[in-house]
Every structure is written in structure tokens, then in C-alpha cells.
């Protein structure tokens, strides 16, 4: 009877030659609007679906006293085509994740340690801010400006998941002050004072 | 023979009881993640697919010397569920559309009069700026910060289309300075100077 | 100058009458294939985007020594239309989340305490199993059978996020043994022995 | 132990209050871009997922010697939100399904009796025509003009499936000649001779 | 006049250099989350859109007295990117398609011969079972466990269509008993008796 | 302090190695169902997001006294994956864009000069026609037959945007008369008179 079942298995397996339950990214290969080209299924192991890089705290010895450790497709090729990714936020007591957007995804945050004041602003210009603590969840709609700030006296940790393998990350300060967009254009399109623009471009390494 | 064809027509029309080529929004009705509930097909006329509100220039007698006249679903219910919307930009000689994002859509702009310097910043913090003139097209990827500035000495007009009936519009200055997000949080998450924040909140009517 | 800006704000706000950055579910209202009808924007507060129910451990005093505490749209209406949801897994030392699928979403798991052996089986019938510990991440592709088992001697906690507000949850044992699917059909379509089927139907309360 | 499992079942069932594996259409209710509002789950039975209307041949005693019997959402509410629908084609010996498109879906056809010559034309204006017989399959890409013609001397039957609950159906002859589009416009936009337009409008009941 | 039209044709054809009405899979090439890379349009013929492999009955001389003959993208490259695929089910009198899921698609079944008892179980653990006969249709929502069993005394045939070129196929018995998932894990996550697991692993060729 | 920020920038930029805000098409590379493979980000400049080809009028010295100048992905690789494209219509006084469909997208038209009578026919065979002038907008749902005709005595110009980088374009006259679809099949599936078919095939260069 065993051989009969093997025949049956064969009948099915021949149709599974190109199962696409997943499509682990071949990061050396090209990208497409839907994601990377898939690594050959024969070379896929469980390690493609596991990411260990978020087990250590990110280094918060910096000006913002915070760190974002991403597991997007570039770090975690297994998420390619699966519609998800994740990152870890570490905030030292004065820590701040500066205001930013994710052009490509919504975000769901869960606090695993400490207290975080999180918020976003909607297109209608309404403000939604709340302090959340361990085990509490905050969801941020796609593409809207949002931030997280440590609200307690001790370090805070959160995990944030996104409904895209590559949600993007546009940090406002970098976009305005850390590239070569001319000061004239920054001032013109933001109404910020020239002195302010000059100061932050200086700190963030922008030119122009 | 006519009656045979009518029979044939009937055979088909009975299957068309709920054709959903379109779904003109019933703006008095509820909204859903995919768009508004549809107006009854019997009440749909060609006027639901035509919008005349962009034929006049928007009023540019304001601080930014510019105007945006939208034909999103709220103004043009016919676009509900069709994946598109459009708006008109008018820029007087010193006109500026302040830096902003559309959380929900990419944007394609065509200049119909004058010259416009347009640009966007990517998540990778690269800057893409160019001056375009009549008949020229600029495309802005979804969710990224971008702006348009009049680059000539006379008024400029452009039409911008979006791949969503409701692309959203988050203007940076409004999000930071024109609502009740506390100055403390604005300063903390943007590193802007308190004096700058206070000044722009004052001008834009923000509180907190 | 203030009044000029208010005029400008008005120009924009009139176009924001139906911004759809989000669509908090009106759970008393009807559902549609894309999600629930939206609650009126005027009634939306930050509490719609915050969920506190996962801050307490689920009750693991049961046969599987485990609990799943969901924050799907039914518990957390704010995720409606945002493409995300989350849940908390608690596993006591012998805890097991029985083998199951999520028909509607992929899942990304992060361990926040203890050690968990997690795994899934692909359509090609390959098995992917690994033990993950605190801070480590495992991703499960949509629709595939998977499970989590406590791998350590102390309690384990994980948070799992899904790329749907309502990923669904089909637990194999319930589907086979806890409803009124006839024993004859269960035996016929699974090749399980009648005695096995009868036993588990007895335990799980199935009939037929 | 039974009561423990019931407790476990309860834990899960409370989270299933709004499972959306399916969304049987409430055809008396409103439609939305994603489909009809869902019928209450408590009122759903297996009969919502079964359609018996295609078991009889359609009536082919008409000019085209053919019939299309649809099971789109209007006839088969259970397909609402499931991304599929189906129809039955009956072609008497001289039968013809006149050239038409489905704006909203691709189509996959399987012949269950007889022989059918089927074909489509691509946007690049290439023609793909072949005669298929029982058990053979032809796939038609979304939105392209296509047709089926009986290729044998006896009746032919086929089942066609679509990747939409409501693929739409635009029959060329109806669109040009069976409504009130003015003859002037028809002639202008098709370059057909006035006599031809007048003749077919007469047969198909068009006006204007 | 002919040459004027050719000029017109040229104007259009130059813009059609990369029409993507379809994207016949190059099965020797790589896969991506959205499907295979396209075969060059110049090499596409009507045979790419026709599949003849379902015209013969599958071989039902096996333990389940049934066969599934797929026309997924691996067999039928023309469906790549078109959102559809199809398969043929043959059930001898005692035939059974064992309980299984399609992670990636919904399924619509039409019986073309005989009688089939078909059913699925929902996430809410409700059972939907009915016997359908020739010409009758049953739809199965995506990702849910379902089965088909011959309900008559003679052979039954059905065609099943899916709203994906590659719906996936997870057969429960194979997933539990026909691979190297350890018996310990199978028992732990299914609560099946060790003897049952050992027996079926033996029959199905599983190890571990 | 500068070095601290650079460290911070590095933390982020390492996660941006594969940002996919955009995916400029490598037109020499392969296509996939979701679009072309992306050009390397390092080679992307602002010129990839700008298209100048619509600044000149198309040549309307032809039989239809009209021209369509597309900026689809084949002409404008920057739109790849962004969900948008655009084209320019020029109509001389007697100009006509013959009746056609876009299988893959809806279309939104804005008139920038002159007057255009535009219209479409729905699947339910209702006709929606209106004359629009400068600044006025007409939206055409995906896949439906539509046309534009110059309604004034002077030349008309419009820009049309689509919610796809490659909407496709099926011109009815070309599909029926400008290829090798046999006259027999054309007559059979359209009920057009043989003389009409022969005449237009002759003019449009069709064979068969």
C-alpha cells in the first residue's frame, strides 16, 4: 500500500514544482515592484524564516537616545512577498524616535518594557497622542507622520510590525536637513527661518 | 426577429442587475475601507462622471500665493472605487505648494502653463528636483515628501492625478504647527528650536 | 496674516471632508468584503487606536496550558482597513498552541519571554521548525499549518502580528472534532481511525 | 476535562465574533467598491455556497443559437468577496457568443461537450484563436475582446470561471447598436457605414 | 489612404512595445512574489493560452480512488499573472479528495458527471456540507479546510477553478504524516494518539 | 555632535539598502506581472521621474485628425510600479479618438484647450456622453468602451491619466479589421455585413 501512496504523493508533488507559499528574497538578484526574485526553493531552510537580530538592544548612545533595529526584507529576506516586517525600538530614558512616516505601510506597536508616549497626525490635521505601557498596543495608519517618546524614567522597548516587507522610513529631520536639498527650497516650502535651517543642516550634515 | 433579440437582451440584462463597472459615492451614506456605498444605478447620470470645478483658477491671494483645487471623492463622487482622482494647482509668481505628502497615492503632474520647480525626497534621503514647463510631466511616488514652487515670473498651472479617489494630503506645516500637538512634543520630535515652533504655531493657529 | 492662513487652511480642509486615512469600525454596523463601515470621524479619539487588552497574561489553566489573546478588528475596531492586527500568546511550561492556520494572513512572531519551538509545513510538504528565544522572530506564510510549543521550563510569551485586521483562525482539532461534521466524513477525508475520531469528538464536544 | 475544553473553545470563539472568511451578499442592501454588505453570519447556510442554476441548459432558440447562464454575485450571493464567479455557455450547432469583453476579470473556459473555436485579440492587436474540445481549457486575459463559436456539428457546452464575483460583460453589438448612442457618434468613432449602423440598430433595438 | 492608416497604426504600435495584457511564464526563469518573469511576447502563441492536459481522466487506481489533475502555472504557464487556474477532479465510486486547504485562493467547483458531497469548515467552526450533482456549483472560501467525496455509485468528475495561478495545496494527511515532522510534535500539536500517528506515518511514508 | 548624528544616519541607512519607494523600469530587463525589474537605485536620477515628450502636440495629419501621445512605462520607465501613467490627446477640428478600451485601468481626462465630446458605455449598456471644455474633467471606468470627439471648431487638447503604468489600449477598429482575424470570424461574432468587413479590412490593412 505504501507504493500506492507514494504514487499519490507523486501525483501531487509534480504539481508542486513551483509552489509559491513563500518567496525568500535573493538579495543579490533584482527587485521588482512586488519584491525580490525568489531564492531557489531547494536552498530554503527554516533559518530563512527566523531572524535573531532583534534579540539585542540597539545602541542608544546617541543624540536621540534611541535606536531602531529593522527586520525589513533587506535584513530578513524571508519576509519577501509575505506582506509583513518588524522592527525593534529601544528608547533610553530621554529617548525619542523623531517624527517620521512609513510611505508603504501601517504600523502596529506593542510595548514590552517601560512607557512610551506615541502619536500621529491625520490628513485632517487631528492629533492622536497617548502614553502606552507594557503590553499595550498603538496602531499608526499608513503614511502619516508619527513619533514615539520615552515617557518614563527607565528604558523602554517596543516591537513594531508593518504590513509590508519594506515599509520605507522617511524621517522628517533627515528629509529636510540631512541631504543636499537647497536651504532656499527648504525655507520656501516649510516657512522655517533661515537660521533654523542653517543650524539643523549643520548638525545633520546637509549641504546646499 | 426583433423580439428574439429582445429575449437575448433580457437574458443578459437579468444578469446585469448588479453590474459594478462603477460605484458613484453616496456621500450621505457610510464609508468603508474600499470607499463609499454606491448610489443606486438608476440615479446615475453622465453628470456623475464629469467635474467642472477645476475650470476656474483657485484663489492665490494668500500667503503661499497658491491654491490647490481638489476633485477627490468628496468633491467628485463619481471617482469612488475607480482608483483615480485629480486636482488643479495654481501658483502665482511667488507661489509655493508647501512640502507635503499623500499617504494614500502616487501623483502624476503635468504643467499646462508656466514653469514649476518640483521635487521629492526618498526614504533613502536622496533628493530629486527639477524645473518642468508646459507639457512636461513629473511623477511623485506614494507617501514621500514633495513640493512645487513657481519657477517663472508669471502664473503657473498644473493638473495632478492620483491613483486613489482619496489620496489624503498631509501638509507638513499644518501637521507640526496648526493643531494642538504640544510645543514640547513638536520640539522633542523635530529638534526645532522653541522659538521657531512658537512663531509658526502663532502664524498657523496652533495651540498647546 | 493669521486670517490669511485660516483661509488657506479652509481651502484645504474643505477638501478633507472625507479623508480616509483610517476607518475605525462601527461594530454595530454592517461588514463588507473590505471591512466594516467606518465610525464617524468626529467620534474618533486616540483611544480607537490604542488597545490595552494584551497587557495581562491570558489564562493558561486549561488543557493546552496556553492562551491566545487576540486584538483583531472585533476587539480592536481601530485596525479596520489598516491591514494589521496583533495577538498575544501565553504558554505555560507544557503549553501548546495546537496546529492551526490563518486563512487570511501571514504572521510574524516575536518572543518576549522564554523559549518557543515554532514551525510550519509548506504546500510542498516541507517542514520548517526551530526553537526561538527572547527577541527572536519567526514568520509564517499565509494559510499554512503551523504551531507553537513551549520549549523551556518556564512560561513563554510572544506577540504575533498579522497583515490583516481579521486573519481568521482555523484550529485543526476544532475543525475536525469540535463541530457536527459527521464521524463518517471525518474518517473518510482524514483516514483517521474511528476510535480516534470518537475519542477526540468526545473530548472536544463534537457531534455527528 | 470536557469543561476545560469548552472553556478553551469559548476563549477562541469570543475572538471569532466577526470572522470574515466569507461575506455572503445581502442583495437587498447596498453595494460598495469591494462588494455587497454581508448577510448576518447566523443566517448563512450551506445553500449560500451552492448554486444549482447552471444544471439546466440555457435556451439557445435565438438568433445567436447560444445562451450564457451566469452565476455572478447577483445570482449567487455567496461569491461576494470571494474573488470568483462562474457561468455556463450553451452553443447550438451554429451557436455564437458574440465578441465581448469582461472589464473586471480574466476568464478560464473548459469545454465539457462538443468543440468550440475561441479566441481573443490583444492590445498589441495580435490574434489568438484555437479550436478546443472536451476537457480542454482556454484562458482569456482581463478586458480583451474575445468570442466563442461552435466548431462542431452538435451542441457544445462550456463552463467559464472569472476571478471576480462581478466580472462585467460588455457585448460589442449591444454597446454599439442596442442603446441610444447616436448613429452619428457610432459612425464617427467606428468608421462603420451609416447603412450598417442603421441596419444593426434596427435589429437590436437601438435608438438615436 | 492606406498609408495614412499605417502611419496611425505605427503611432499606436510604438506605444505598445511593452503591452502587458498577459505575461506567459518563462518557467526556466525566476519567480517573484507576483509571478514568473514573462516570456518574450514575440514567442507567445495561442498554444500558451490553451491547456489540453485535463481532457483525459486522472488515474484513480489508488488508495483514495481519486485524482487531481492541476493546470496551475507550473503546468499552464499562460495563466501567470492572470489571476486564475483550474484543475480536474476524478472520483471513482469510493473516491475521496482528502481534507485539504488552498492557502492562496478561493475555489469554485462545478460537477460535470456524477454526484459529489462537498464541504468546508469555517474559522468559526461551522460546517457547510452538501451533495451536488451535474451542473451544480459549490464555492469554497480561501484557506479553509474542505473536501470532496463521491456521493454516487458511479464515477464523478468536477472542474475546480481558483482565483490565483498558484493557489497552493496543503493536504492535511500529508502535512501531518508524510514528512519528517517528529511524531512528538505531531502528537503534541494535534492531540492524536501516538498509535494513530505511527500508523499513518507508516502508511504515508513519514519519518521522525 | 556631528559624528553622533552620522552614526544615527548610518543606523538608518543600513536599513535602507533596499528601499523600494520606486522601481524605475530597466526596459532592457525582463517584465513580471507586477512590472519591470528595477534599475539599480544608484543609477536613478531625477530625469527618471520627468517626461518631456508630451510638450509637443502629436501629429494630427491623419485620417482621424487626432493623435495620442502616451507616457506609459515603455516611454516613461519611472512610472513602473507607481500605479500611474499619462497621455496627451490632440484633436484637430474634425478629430476623433476612435472607440476603444483600456483593459487595465480607469482613465481621468482633463481638457486644456477646446471642447471635447466624450462618452462611455457601461456593461449594463447605458450610455454616458457629455461635452466638456477647458478645465473640465471626465472619468472613464476601467475596461469600458469609450471615445473622444472634437466638439468645437478649433483644435482641442486633453491630458488623460490612468491608474496603471501600462493601461493597455484596445482600439475597436484595429481589433476587428487591422489584423489577421478571419473575415468569417469577424462577421460571425459581430453580425457586421461581409461588405463592411471587407471594406474596413482593406482600409486598415487586415488580412484573412
TrEMBL record, chains A, B, C, D, E, F:
Single GO cellular component term: apoplast
Entry keyword annotation includes Manganese: yes
Gene Ontology MF terms in the entry: manganese ion binding
Pfam families referenced in this protein's UniProt entry, alphabetically: Cupin_1 (PF00190)
Gene3D superfamilies: Jelly Rolls (2.60.120.10)
CDD domains linked: cupin_OxOx
Protein name per UniProt: Germin-like protein
Amino acid at each position: 500500500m505504501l507504493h500506492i501512496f507514494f504514487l499519490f504523493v507523486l501525483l501531487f508533488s509534480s504539481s508542486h514544482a513551483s509552489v509559491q507559499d513563500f518567496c525568500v528574497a535573493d538579495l543579490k538578484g533584482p527587485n521588482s515592484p512586488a519584491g525580490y526574485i525568489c531564492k531557489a526553493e531547494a536552498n530554503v531552510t527554516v533559518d530563512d524564516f527566523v531572524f535573531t537580530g532583534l534579540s539585542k538592544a540597539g545602541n542608544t548612545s546617541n543624540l536621540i537616545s534611541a535606536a531602531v533595529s529593522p527586520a525589513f526584507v533587506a535584513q530578513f529576506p524571508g519576509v519577501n512577498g509575505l506582506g509583513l516586517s518588524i522592527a525593534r525600538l529601544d528608547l533610553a530614558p530621554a529617548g525619542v524616535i523623531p517624527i517620521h512616516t512609513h510611505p508603504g505601510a501601517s504600523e502596529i506597536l506593542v510595548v514590552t518594557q517601560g512607557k512610551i508616549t506615541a502619536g500621529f497626525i491625520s490628513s485632517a490635521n487631528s492629533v492622536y497622542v497617548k502614553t502606552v505601557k507594557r503590553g499595550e498596543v498603538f496602531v499608526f495608519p499608513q503614511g502619516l507622520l508619527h513619533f514615539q517618546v520615552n515617557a518614563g524614567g527607565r528604558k523602554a522597548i517596543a516591537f513594531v510590525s508593518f504590513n509590508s516587507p519594506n515599509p520605507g522610513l522617511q524621517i522628517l529631520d533627515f528629509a529636510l536637513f540631512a541631504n543636499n536639498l537647497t536651504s532656499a527650497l527648504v525655507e520656501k516650502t516649510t516657512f522655517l527661518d533661515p537660521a533654523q535651517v542653517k543650524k539643523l543642516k549643520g548638525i545633520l550634515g546637509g549641504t546646499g
